[in-house]
Amino acid sequence: MATTYKTFLNNDITTTRTLLHEAIPITGSIVSGTYADANIKEYTADLFEGVYDYPYLSSSANHIFDITCGYSPNSPLSASALADGITTAQDRKNKINMYNEMAKVLVGHDITGSIQEFDQDGNISGGGPKIQEAYFLNFARLLTKDEFKKETFLLTLGSGTTYAAPFDVTTVISDYGAANEFRVNSPAGEYGILYSGSAAVEGTGVGLLYYQAGVAVLTASVFGLPDAVTPLGFDEDDQRVEAVLSGSSITDNANDLRHRFENLEFNNTTELNSTIYFCRVNHNEFNYSSNPTYLSSSQIVVKSQTTDAPISFITTVGLYAADNELLGVAKLSEPLKKDPNNELILRVRLDY
Amino acid sequence: MAFLDNSGDIILDAVLTDTGRLRLARGDGSFRIAKFALGDDEIDYGKYDSTNLSGSPYYDLEIMKTPVFEAFTNNTSTMQSKLITFTRTNLLYLPVIMLNTLDTSTKTYTGLNTFLVTADNATSNVILDSASGTPAGVLLGDQTVDSENYIRLDQGLDTTKLSATNPIDQDLKETQYIIEMDNRFGNITSWKGVAAVSSFVDDDNIATYFLSMGATSANFIENLPRDGTDTQPTAQVILGPRGTLLKFKIQTSVDLQGSNYLFETLGSESTITPGDASIDIYTLDTTIKVTGATTGYRVDVPVRYIKKRG
After folding, report:
1. ipTM of the assembly?
2. β-strands A261-281, A147-148: how paired?
3. Are A137 and A215 in contact (CB under 8 A)?
4. Do B73 and A329 touch (CB under 8 A)?
């Protein structure tokens, strides 16, 4: 009896999980000024600003990340405006709200229900220094996919002492050592510590990188708070970062951060869950075709006499439901010859 | 539709069809891949050169260079021709399915090479009045008036190198046919007017009918007579051993009968002259796909739905 379908048996189907990584380079000039800020989307609510890879009014533009900042209600900056600050009550409220929102999602609550602060070394219960003033880079899912790949995040920031020459000195911030050492005590998944040196040195963290959430948290001190060795001019007036953070809007802070953005690169991760169908084609199967060109006056054109071996060529594998509905299609990149002298196993992978 | 890059290894590029995604989204367990088939839509076997003087490695050189399309996601656009399994390797002839238009009641409409299907009773009546009977090639789709016309497809080995007095081998005889047609326009009935039940209607409104020999009393499929036993020897299109014949009619849908919308949206306007006078009509051209469920051979039957204008 002739057949055109072959039923899968239990051992013809298996499932796999594959982690796919892509290298994502973000050239700093795109962030700091290539498009004269036409790729920067500001919002009147002044809670964050969006960065695109092309002027955002173009349909070609892709959202790449958002920048925001804030400080903890426990930060000295939240008490009252600093002497040289010009902050308004709403500005301050916005920054506290943003810090709390980020902390609520990324750090969580303590046993009393209070929002916990970002911890410099991730050892929340062990106390230690907190990150109370922070800049946040919230990356688009388009770039991070399922998560950052650990120990691939490299952010280069200008740390020149003046606003006019930000890249005279640069600082590379990375999650050094995170492939083997990362934290799991966040409600938002795994996170690593960001360091500004060339290696992980305990107690010197300058931020946190939340892998699944796709968020980088940078302590404001990376730009030189008063206790830093070299305080730098963070805004156009060369004010220090604590003055800008307390005295300027979130949008202005985001713009000043972009001004010092030299380069960013990381690898993302996509978790592919696949079902693999092994299409086993035995020597005596699929050697003939129903292709209209296969016959000439009913005679098989690839045979001259009955003793010639039948030949067919495979270009497509169709995956069917029991009721013969076509559910999936796999294509070969070139025709594959099939005759009674060969057997094939076509491995068809369906990703979810 | 781009061609796949074949400069490297052979890579399978698997995608879900629109029906696959629909069933997956339904979440009712209907998405379950149970079997596979192999297709060769891009291959032109006419390029197989068994006389190449350079030897057998060169016979299929042109075929092997055929570029292959990326996967179509429309479930009805791909796997048009499937590979077949016959366990024996000594077959030199394979059966085909051919439209039989030799008999008066199975002809296509004169000059159009298509079957005309009247959409409603008014159209049927005006044609019957004009032609003083049902013209050849016209199927009365409203089926309120009995008509002898129907569509007939014959199956068998179409060669004079084998005698038509011989019976066809059992494994070459088609006993089940699959008919696919647009469900918005109509449905399949037997030549006696008994409606067939579709197995499913997909996301593109394509209804699929599985018609098996002897499965119903509707007599969709019959054995074709051998030469010498045939009462109508001139009505045979299959020149060699014959298998079965499939005959059916089309009943138009309520939408086609009661509304001009599908004609105005998908069709055009024309005139026909079945008798002395011309009739202004809407037309809607489509094809009905008939596939042998066992042997996989496929034929597209051209059909034009017509409806009287004004």
Report:
1. 0.86
2. antiparallel
3. yes
4. yes
Q: Give B5-59 pLDDT, tens digit per residue.
A: 555 445 587 899 999 999 999 999 999 999 999 999 999 999 999 888 888 889 9
Q: How far is A22 from chain B (nearest CA, A)?
A: 19
- What is the Cα–Cα distance from B23 to B11, expressed in whole angstroms? 26
Q: What is the pLDDT of residues B186-238, one digit of tens each?
A: 999 988 888 899 988 888 899 999 999 887 667 899 999 887 776 666 788 99
Nearest CA in chain A to B63: A335
3-state secondary structure B84-118: EECCCCCCCECCEEEECCCCHHHCCCCCCCCEEEE
Cα A62 from chain centroid (whole Å): 13
Query: DSSP letter at A165?
Result: -
Q: How many CB pairs under 8 A join A and B?
A: 286
Interface residue A283 vs chain B (CB under 8 A): no
Radius of gyration of chain A (CA): 29
Closest by CA position to B121, among listed B92, B145, B100, B91: B145
H helix or E strand, kind and range, residue A130: strand A130-131
Q: Are A135 and A221 in contact (CB under 8 A)?
A: no
| H or E element, residue B131 | helix B121-131
